[in-house]
Design goal:
The protein is α+β, with helices and mostly antiparallel strands.
Length: 768
């Protein structure tokens, strides 16, 4: 771990207002489609309307090319495109695919999901491109369709890739043959569904590519990883990566779905190269629902065993992941789920196995939590099922099995090494805020009265993994105007990096955070970077920034000491924009003069380099949900949502609260609203926001959020991730609350999402 010695404690815990917000509030944000590119052509993709089909021909190309304003119509053979391996052309963390499930950048022989691109129309306006695209159609022979992971895993299932002889793209296991439930007096078993979700970023996907002089290109892209996009575009165009200038401007949400290199990026780049003109593409909402990677999509079989007094003995997880038509990063999400299946509990023995299977639907990718929400939902539902079997309060069962605070670092039976934790503290605080005993008393009173509006209380205690072992780059410099500039390889898409990083550097250099400028997501300004994913930004980006600021500070201190003719140890500061001699504040030198002296000496006041984060961190927390369920209609209303999350040391409480709110909202959405649905023929039923039930603020209560702080020693800041915590803790809390509301009727489980129809059916079946 990089050593950083000069971070004043006062840097942390300051709820500074976001410096990004004024430009957004004035309508001055620069999202991809706001970028003015003179003479740019518009690209529109022709997509498959078949879930699975053999392509005989692509018809209507000549007619489309003859349409007004059309510059070109391309299919795969026109662009000399390579096949793109399903895992992507960049290295995928997590493992190797069992067989090469190749993904064509533009499909030509076979299409495998509705929305797969087969051709592109490039025209002088969006309207002209759309008109011409409507003339292009597939002459194809429909093939048998595979819908759902369990159908795909069947030995008799149709094959999406006949040459591979299987629909199984990846598999893994740990101690599967061991008797991990030996000694259990009570064992519960359940089949749980973690449904497929669409990310629904406010800004959909898109890219613009502009050819420049001397074989150079400028690329604007709505991405979480612009350096990856730069490298991929350079490889496809056959140019040096430094000939491609990639910029991620303001990005309107990503949630993990803007990590991949999409086929459309490659096609737009090739079209711009062939035409010698700028080409831009920005997808519609329906395109986004069908083409941007989805999330979750697991079926889980869990067994959890305990002694009669409620001490956990062991767990066994069998997992099946539906990774869509092409197994990308999503093929390895199940491994993260299995690694985190122990949750916050001391489970002595765990066995697991998993498979990732291909189906005729949009490919799966990372989505806020990426394998960790699935683990929390699984173990938390199993804990409630076990509590019911043992006739214990769910809270009491959890308390008996929480990992003790003095047990860290703690190696779980599933292979994760948790850094720090104080699980009971966050649980106790959440229950205190909720007034748990009073809620149980109200529930009992309603049941005694026979109320038709049932009250349910759900609890979840969770732990997740963030950061991951990575490296990141940063440069910190101070100019002759006294303003500090931070360049860093992370990418902001709504989190508040410009504020957080400015606070960190401002605190270290003794200047206002408003005097710190943060530059990111521009490959001409930033030397390298890995972007933002896995809640890594403050852990990896903040740590490397702090290390570079520390180096700059030591150099500046030595310069100041030389100018003031004292030993460096006799200096106070930096504060108020400079250093002074201890006990003689009139002997002072500021950053402006120090930077000017450094410039005059030909060595600007700057420090740059890469730091490697040595490992992952494990944030945790406890959520309590309170719901009311109409027993006549199955309608669910969430009336309270309490969250106590621990992300280590907190730099800016307001930014943390914003991340909690966003994550909780998406966690609630999974619990009771959202689900990607297909009909039995593989046709999407939820391709618009009229059919995909994403909640608005009107459907959500005010959240009651607090934080505990348990610092980590993994990074010099003591911080952990917070961006995904809400989506991990909220879903099982709400699901448990819905089932709890119905428990007195004999309902044991309701699958996600807990829609009125599902709830009503569960009530009806229990009453038979």
């Amino acid at each position: 771990m990089t050593s950083v010695t000069t971070i004043p404690p006062s840097t942390f815990g300051i709820p500074a207002l976001r410096t990004e917000d004024p430009r957004f509030l004035r309508g001055e944000g620069r999202y991809l489609d706001n970028i003015q590119i003179p003479g740019a052509l518009r690209a529109v993709f022709v997509r498959s309307i078949f879930p699975h089909a053999a392509v005989n021909a692509i018809q209507g190309l000549a007619e489309a090319r003859a349409m007004p304003g059309v510059a070109a119509v391309y299919v795969a053979g026109d662009l000399d495109l390579p096949n793109q391996l399903a895992a992507g052309s960049v290295e995928v963390p997590g493992g190797d695919l069992e067989r090469p499930f190749e993904r064509p950048i533009l499909a030509s022989d076979r299409v495998r999901y509705v929305g797969e691109p087969v051709a592109v129309v490039v025209a002088d306006s969006l309207a002209h491109a759309q008109d011409a695209a409507e003339l292009v159609w597939l002459e194809a022979m429909p093939l048998p369709v595979v819908v759902g992971a369990e159908a795909a895993a069947d030995d008799e299932a149709p094959l999406l890739f006949p040459e591979t002889g299987t629909n199984v793209a990846a598999r893994f296991d740990q101690t599967w043959d061991a008797d991990v439930l030996a000694g259990a007096d009570v064992t519960v078993r359940a089949r749980l569904v973690n449904q497929r979700l669409a990310p629904v970023a406010m800004e959909t996907n898109g890219i613009a590519v502009m050819p420049e002089d001397e074989g150079r290109y400028t690329v604007w892209v709505s991405s979480q990883a612009p350096f990856d996009v730069r490298d991929e575009v350079a490889e496809i165009l056959g140019v040096d990566r430094h000939a491609v200038h990639a910029i991620a401007p303001d990005v309107g949400g990503g949630f993990g779905a803007k990590i991949p290199i999409y086929p459309e990026y490659v096609v737009v780049a090739k079209a711009a190269e062939k035409l010698g003109r700028p080409v831009r593409w920005f997808e519609s909402r329906t395109e986004s629902m069908q083409s941007m990677t989805h999330g979750r999509a697991q079926v889980q079989w869990i067994e959890l065993g305990a002694t009669r007094d409620g001490r956990l003995v062991g767990a066994r997880l069998d997992l099946l992941g539906d990774v869509g038509a092409y197994p990308q990063l999503g093929a390895f999400m199940g491994q993260t789920t299995a690694e985190m299946i122990s949750g916050v509990y001391a489970i002595p023995a765990i066995a697991f196995r998993g498979r990732a299977v291909v189906t005729n639907v949009t490919p799966l990718g990372a989505y806020r939590g990426a394998g960790r929400p699935e683990a929390a939902a699984c173990i938390e539902r199993a804990m409630d099922l076990l509590a019911a079997e043992l006739d214990l309060d769910p809270v009491e069962l959890r308390r008996r099995n929480l990992i003790a605070p003095d047990a860290f670092p703690y190696l779980t039976a599933s292979g994760a090494t948790y850094d720090t934790g104080a699980y009971q503290r966050s649980l106790d605080r959440a229950l205190e805020i909720a007034d748990y005993d009073a809620l149980r008393a109200e529930q009992a009173a309603r049941r005694a009265r026979g109320d038709r509006t049932a009250l349910g209380i759900g609890v979840s205690t969770y732990v997740e993994i963030t950061g991951f072992p990575t490296k990141e780059w940063a440069r910190v410099s101070v100019g002759t105007d006294g303003v500090a500039t931070v360049r860093v390889g992370t990418t902001s898409f709504g989190q508040g990096h410009e504020t957080a990083f400015a606070q960190l550097v401002g605190g270290m250099l003794g200047m206002s955070y408003t005097d710190v400028r943060v530059i990111h997501s521009d490959t001409a300004e930033v030397e390298r970077g890995q972007g933002s994913w896995g809640s890594r930004s403050l852990q990896a980006g903040g740590s490397v920034i702090a290390a570079r600021a520390d180096e700059l500070l030591e150099r500046a201190r030595d310069m100041a000491a030389a100018v003031l003719e004292v030993d460096a140890h006799d200096l106070a500061g930096p504060d108020a924009g400079g250093f002074h001699v201890s006990g003689a504040p009139e002997r002072w030198i500021g950053w402006t003069e120090l930077a000017a002296r450094a410039e005059a000496a030909g060595e600007p006041l700057s420090a740059a380099g890469v730091s490697r984060d040595p490992g992952a961190t494990y944030p945790f927390g406890a959520h309590v949900a309170v719901v009311e369920v109409d027993l006549d209609t199955g309608g669910v209303e969430l009336v309270r949502m309490i969250a106590v999350d621990d992300c280590g040391r907190i730099l800016n409480p307001m930014l943390v609260r914003g991340q909690q709110h966003g994550g909780i909202a998406q966690g609630i959405a999974q619990a009771i609203f959202e689900e990607v649905q297909l009909d039995e023929a593989g046709n999407p039923l939820t391709s618009t926001l009229m059919t995909y039930l994403m909640p608005s603020a009107a459907e959500l209560p005010s959240f009651e959020c607090e934080n505990t702080e348990t610092p980590t020693s993994v990074n010099p800041l003591g911080v952990k991730g917070i961006g995904e915590s809400g989506s991990i803790g909220a879903t099982p809390a709400v699901q448990n609350a819905v089932v709890d509301a119905l428990a007195h009727l004999g309902v044991r489980h309701v699958d996600l999402p807990c829609s009125p129809e599902r709830v009503w059916r569960a009530i009806a079946e229990a009453s038979r």
